[in-house]
Design brief:
The protein is an alpha/beta fold and 202 residues long. The protein contains 8 helices and 7 strands; from the N terminus they run βαααβαβααββαββα. The strands form 2 sheets. A 5-stranded mixed sheet has the order 2-1-3-5-4, with helices on both faces. The C terminus is likely disordered.
């Protein structure tokens, strides 16, 4: 387990229709999955070894049906959301990540009530709102009852990375250059080493 490393936090895992096939997949099959393939490529660009990462999700369980991206009724159930947040805090308490990569636009609002430093994400729904005033990076989020602080960086969900890159902005950069600069700053803030900064590109 990568204690003191990087937690990669997605929205939810999969849907009931696809889950049985996923259990039988080998590594080559997983490379065909857009989320996994694009995520590994993004981590490689930044020099991040996946072995240093713990991959988990905000919402626990499977989405019923064949569309893992749809909003499900459970996400409006306070009891369910509360249990998911409690489980995430349990994972953070055990693994003590120094950096959390929050994927997609739904995860920031999930994190919002868990730390005073993420409270501004409570009403964020678009990348423009998340990126406003560089709010896509929290250098030291403190979770009540847990020791230490965690750097949190909001990144695109890998499965929607291509069409949404143009929506990202950070430190005067846009697209790929913005996201790479954002994560590199997160690595520096959390004191996790990666490849040195390369030339900006989009």
């Amino acid at each position: 387990m990568p204690f003191g490393g990087i937690m990669v936090l997605g929205n939810n895992f999969q849907c009931t229709a696809n889950h049985p096939a996923l259990l039988e997949q080998g590594e080559e099959d997983r490379q065909k999955d857009a989320t996994w393939r694009n995520l590994l490529a993004f981590l490689a660009t930044l020099g991040i070894d996946p072995g240093r990462c713990f991959f988990t999700n905000a919402h626990i369980g499977l989405v019923e049906g064949s569309d893992a991206t749809r909003t499900v009724p459970a996400m409006s159930d306070p009891g369910y959301i509360g249990r998911c947040r409690a489980f995430l805090l349990h994972q953070i308490a055990i693994l003590r990540p120094r950096l959390i990569l929050a994927m997609g636009t739904k995860v920031p609002s999930f994190l919002a009530p868990l730390s005073p430093q993420t409270a501004s994400w409570n009403k964020t729904k678009t990348w423009a709102e998340i990126d406003a005033e560089e709010g896509c990076l929290v250098e030291a989020a403190e979770f009540p009852g847990l020791p230490g602080a965690v750097t949190i960086v909001c990144i695109l969900h890998p499965s929607f990375r291509g069409p949404n890159l143009r929506r990202r902005s950070f430190a005067g950069l846009i697209g790929s250059a913005a996201e790479e600069a954002l994560v590199r700053k997160g690595l520096r803030c959390s004191e996790i080493s990666a490849l040195p900064d390369g030339p900006a590109h989009d």
